[in-house]
Design a protein that fits this description.
30% strand; four-stranded antiparallel sheet; 19% helix; binds uracil; 17 strands; nine-stranded mixed sheet
C-alpha cells in the first residue's frame, strides 16, 4: 500500500501552495475519513483514504504523465541497484506513483522520453498499430549510399531478418539527419542508418506524434504534462 504525506497529497491534487495547505490543515479545514486532521505530515493512502478540504472530496490524480529530456549515459530501465536509471531522475513529489518509461531509448540516446503510470496509454504509444511517428536527429559519419532516402522509404529487411517499416530520412546538414519511424525495434534508427552506410555518433529524439521536446527543458530535467498534452502523441 502506497502512502504519502497529507500536505504532499493536497499539493499534488489541488491548486493550493504548500503553505496554504498547512494553514488550512491547522485551521481544521481538512479531514481524512471524516475525521478532522491537524497534522499535515500524516501519512495517508491515496487509494483508500477519503480526503476532504472544506467539505469537498479531493480526488487522487489517477494517471500522471511526465516528460523527460533524457541525458546520455542513463539507462531506460525500471530500477537498477547499481546503475542510474531514468526513474532516479523523477522528482521526489512524483516518486510514490508506480512509474515506468514509455518505450526505451538507448543508454547513449538523448531527448524526449515519456514516463507515466498509465499502462494503457504506454501500450498505445508503443504499439505499431497506433502509427505514432517519432523523430530522431542523428549526427552521423560515413558516406550514405546514393539512394538512401528511397531505400529507407520503401522499408528494409535487416541482416538478421528484422523487417522494418518505411522510414523517412532527411539530410539536414552534411553530418546531421532526421529519421522518422513509426515503430520501435531494437536499435532501430542506428541499424536503419547503418543499412544505408551511415554510422551514428549521437542520437536525439525530439518528437513523438505532435508532442515535441520543449526547448527550455534541460537535459536531465522532467516536467509534468497534463493528459491533454500527453494525448498529443496520437495527433
Ligand atoms: N533507435 C535507436 O537506435 N536507438 C534509440 O535509442 C532509439 C531508436
Amino acid at each position: 500500500m502506497k502512502t504519502v504525506r497529507l500536505d504532499k497529497f493536497l499539493s499534488e491534487n489541488t491548486a493550493l501552495s504548500r503553505s496554504q495547505i498547512r494553514t488550512a490543515v491547522k485551521r481544521g479545514e481538512v479531514s481524512v475519513n471524516e475525521k478532522v486532521i491537524y497534522d499535515f505530515s500524516l501519512k495517508i493512502s491515496p487509494d483508500e483514504d477519503s480526503v476532504c478540504l472544506n467539505g469537498e472530496i479531493i480526488n487522487n490524480k489517477k494517471f500522471i504523465y511526465l516528460l523527460l529530456n533524457k541525458p546520455s549515459g542513463i539507462l531506460t530501465a525500471s530500477r537498477d541497484k547499481s546503475r542510474e536509471t531514468v526513474l532516479d531522475l523523477v522528482p521526489e513529489e512524483f516518486k510514490h506513483y508506480d512509474l515506468f518509461a514509455v518505450g526505451r531509448l538507448d543508454k547513449d540516446t538523448t531527448g524526449l522520453l515519456l514516463i507515466t503510470n498509465d499502462g494503457d496509454y504506454a501500450h498505445r504509444v508503443i504499439s505499431p498499430k497506433s502509427n505514432v511517428e517519432k523523430d530522431y536527429i542523428a549526427t552521423v559519419d560515413g558516406t550514405p549510399q546514393k539512394n538512401a532516402v528511397s531505400v529507407l522509404a520503401e522499408g528494409v529487411t535487416l541482416a538478421d531478418g528484422t523487417v522494418c517499416r518505411p522510414a523517412k530520412l532527411e539530410f539536414l546538414k552534411d553530418d546531421t539527419v532526421r529519421v522518422t519511424i513509426t515503430e520501435g525495434k531494437y536499435h532501430q534508427v542506428k541499424r536503419l542508418l547503418g543499412f544505408v552506410g551511415l554510422g551514428v555518433k549521437t542520437l536525439h529524439r525530439e518528437r513523438i506524434g505532435s508532442l515535441c521536446l520543449p526547448d527550455n527543458l534541460k537535459a536531465g530535467s522532467i516536467t509534468e504534462i497534463n493528459s491533454d498534452t500527453a494525448m498529443l502523441v496520437f495527433k
